[in-house]
Design brief:
By secondary structure, this protein is an alpha/beta fold. It has one domain: FMN-linked oxidoreductases (TIM Barrel). The chain has ten helices and eight strands. The protein has helices spanning 2-5, 22-29, 46-56, 96-105, 127-132, 140-153, 170-179, 194-203, 212-215, 217-228; strands at 10-14, 35-38, 63-66, 79-85, 114-121, 158-162, 184-188, 206-209. Strands 1-2-3-4-5-6-7-8 form an eight-stranded parallel beta barrel, surrounded by four helices. The protein starts with a helix and ends in an 8-residue tail after the last helix. The structure holds SN-glycerol-1-phosphate. SN-glycerol-1-phosphate binds next to strand 8. Sn-glycerol 1-phosphate binds at residues 13, 160-165, 190, 210-211.
Length: 236
């Protein structure tokens, strides 16, 4: 499964709790983006997740679920991305919900389709930060230390720098980049156009674009080419 995400440079993240027209969904799915990631912090239900998956399935790009609500785990996705919020002080967001999920779903879990994301939440003014009480005030070195926990201690397939809703501090992202050797580095947060997409794409393996889809679809679509045309810098 890790092989499947290797070529992903650009990903659109769709929120089951937000409305998207068929026309916009078609544009997103035919944009040349590498995958659709379905997920959100609030208002995610089994019903709205099934509904969105069914609509995305009309197109051929891979579709992954970022699991955040136990009740909203829907079968039929290509991949299940499992966040562990490394900078949450609450073990529930690192291990607790995961334990409950395994207790509840046990033998139904398609382990071969799961990929764990070492999440580092960096925007204090985001739903995910509020939900997980993440300690977002991190120096670049502290963020890089968390990233190395994921990369070198836990050997997770993905390190996800999550600035959801705000464009991140590229110096911090660069420091993290310089320290991640094995994990695929995902960046998400506040990309509203080509300039931000290009900056993030230079430093990260995979760029996730969310919110702007719902605010300005044309701008969202432009991020695909911007990311694809940017060669990632190599540090290691
Ligand atoms: C959110 O990382 C994604 O989980 C993308 O962030 O919605 O700010 O683009 P935005």
């Amino acid at each position: 499964m890790q092989q499947m995400i290797k070529p992903w440079r650009h990903v659109f993240k769709l929120d089951p709790d937000r409305l998207i027209s068929d026309e916009d969904l078609q544009s997103v799915c035919l944009s040349g983006s590498d995958a659709i990631l379905i997920g959100g912090s609030t208002g995610v239900t089994y019903e709205n997740t099934v509904d969105l998956l069914t609509r995305v399935r009309r197109y051929k790009l891979p579709c992954a679920l970022e699991v955040s609500h136990l009740e909203a785990v829907v079968p039929g996705f290509d991949l299940y991305m499992i966040p562990m919020v490394l900078n949450s002080p609450e073990p529930a967001w690192i291990l607790g919900h995961h334990r409950q999920a395994i207790e509840r779903y046990g033998s139904f879990i398609p382990w071969e389709r799961l990929l764990t994301e070492g999440y580092i939440v960096l925007n204090d003014d985001s739903s995910v930060a509020r939900l997980t009480s993440a300690e977002t005030e991190l120096t670049a070195e502290a963020a890089a230390a968390y990233a190395q926990i994921a990369d070198k201690l836990m050997k997770l397939p993905i390190v996800y720098l999550e600035y959801s809703g705000r464009f991140g501090d590229m110096d911090t992202v660069q420091t993290v980049r310089e320290n991640v050797e094995y994990s695929q580095l995902f960046y998400g947060g506040g990309i509203t156009g080509e300039a931000e997409a290009t900056q993030a794409a230079a430093l990260c393996d995979t760029v996730v674009v969310g919110n702007i889809i719902y605010r300005d679809i044309q701008q969202a679509l432009r991020t695909v080419a911007a990311v694809k045309m940017t060669k990632p810098l190599t540090y290691l």
